[in-house]
């Protein structure tokens, strides 16, 4: 009921870089919000440290205050340890990486639909960002069970309702 009032949902942190979809209980196929889950800055369990920068529709009359883009930055620990020269670099921007014209809930929902496809290269890119491009995950990849688990996590912000996980 506060869809038109709440401009953004921001969460921290599950150590991984992802988002959560919120669906209308009256019209379950309609995504009405997206929650941004920022990655951790800690190198928890084989992960690189990372942080996110949000570009928000700014303060002016009739501003939407919505998220216009995100930049996600990481520090490659393997590289830093090898070269003794830690540096953060931009891993990706959401709009550019996913070819999105906007970050509205419907656009994120379309992205999830693309990731559901078998052999989805979009999912492969998402998994790289989800794991902050950490070497162990890069080398192991993500099995079909792993993919189903992650996609279900994205579409079930209400953990008591897994109906959007059907068919993953």
UniProtKB/TrEMBL annotation:
Which terms in the Gene Ontology molecular function aspect does this entry carry? acid sphingomyelin phosphodiesterase activity
Pfam families (UniProt xref): ASMase_C
The keyword Hydrolase is annotated on this UniProt entry: yes
Q: Which GO terms describe its cellular component?
A: extracellular space; lysosome; membrane
Q: Does the keyword Glycoprotein apply?
A: yes
Check the record and name the SUPFAM superfamilies matching this protein. Answer: Metallo-dependent phosphatases
Q: Which residues form the Sphingomyelin phosphodiesterase C-terminal domain?
A: 45-165
Return the PANTHER family for the record.
SPHINGOMYELIN PHOSPHODIESTERASE
By what name is this protein known? Sphingomyelin phosphodiesterase C-terminal domain-containing protein
The scientific name of the source species is Cherax quadricarinatus (Australian red claw crayfish)
């Amino acid at each position: 009921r506060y869809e038109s009032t709440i401009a953004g949902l921001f969460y921290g942190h599950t150590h991984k870089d992802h988002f959560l979809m919120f669906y209308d209980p009256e019209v379950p196929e309609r995504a009405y919000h997206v929650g941004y889950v920022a990655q951790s800055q800690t190198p928890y369990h084989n992960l690189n440290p990372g942080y996110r920068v949000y570009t928000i529709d700014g303060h002016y009359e009739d501003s939407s205050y919505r998220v216009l883009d995100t930049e996600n930055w990481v520090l490659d620990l393997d590289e830093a340890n090898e070269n003794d020269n830690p540096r953060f670099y931009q891993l990706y921007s959401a709009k550019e990486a996913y070819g999105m014209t906007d970050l509205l809930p419907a656009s994120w929902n379309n992205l999830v639909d693309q990731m559901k496809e078998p052999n989805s290269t979009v999912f492969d890119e998402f998994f790289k960002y989800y794991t902050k491009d950490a070497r162990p995950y890069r080398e192991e990849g993500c099995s079909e069970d792993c993919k189903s688990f992650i996609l279900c996590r994205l579409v079930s912000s209400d953990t008591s309702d897994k109906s959007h996980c059907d068919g993953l």
